[in-house]
Amino acid sequence: MKNKIVYSITMAATFAAIITICSWISIPVMTVPFTLQTLAIFLCCWTLDFKTSMFAITAYILLGIIGVPVFANFSSGISAILGPTGGYLIGFVLMPPTYYLIAKIGKEKLPFRIIGLLAALFVCYLFGSIWFYFVYLGKGTAVSFGNVLSWCVIPFIGPDLVKGLFSVIIGEKLLKSTPLGKYKFNNSQNELIVHHE
Are the C-beta atoms of residues 101 and 116 closer than 8 Å to each other? Predict the structure, then answer.
């Protein structure tokens, strides 16, 4: 039990750091900056158990809220969350539940895990876009939901799919060649499991 707790904390801290680094690799385009955040979130889902991935992503968000410059362009603070693009950050927290739900339905077979990643991305897009839309309306700015999608989603679909592909390739290599594969555990059953190819 103690080893599992140490493992979970260590992996969560490591992946929170990875998400931060990927967030700093940023190209400001249009309304939402292009970063490698999504790649890191995909990797969290693919290589960690549900609780550890949630811990890593939540820790990352909380660090940003309290002022640590972990977000894109080294930004931080509650204003980053409450702003128009903050919904996409919150959407990251919704990605592991979506992924693991579908992966479990498919008994964690590869096709279902890939579908889980795509569904998780869709949920993040949807939540973030709805958030963006209502924040803009709250500011008294006229904007259609189609405009929001053209600014914040459509330009990123291709790059995010590529990041998803790389996350699967990298994640599988990590699971097969590092302790992540041996010690990835199923929190729902509270026991260690071996990753199956």
Answer: yes
Instruction: For strands 191-192 and 26-27, give the pairing.
Output: unpaired
Q: How many CA atoms lie within 13 A of 173 on its CB side?
A: 5
Query: Distances from the Cα of 126 to the Cαs of 8, 72, 89, 94, 138, in angstroms?
Result: 29, 20, 12, 11, 18
Question: Structure tokens of 41?
Answer: 């979130």
**Of the candidates 129, 105, 125, the residue with the CA atom closest to the CA atom of residue 115:** 105
The CA-CA-CA angle for residues 87, 164, 114, to 5°, reads 100
Distance CA 58, CA 40 (A): 13
The whole-chain average pLDDT of the chain stands at 88
pLDDT per residue as tens digits for the range 70-106: 998 899 999 999 999 999 999 999 999 999 999 999 9
Contact call for residues 77 and 64 (beta carbons, < 8 A): yes
Length of the chain, please?
Answer: 197
Q: Which residue has the tokens 């550890």?
A: 52
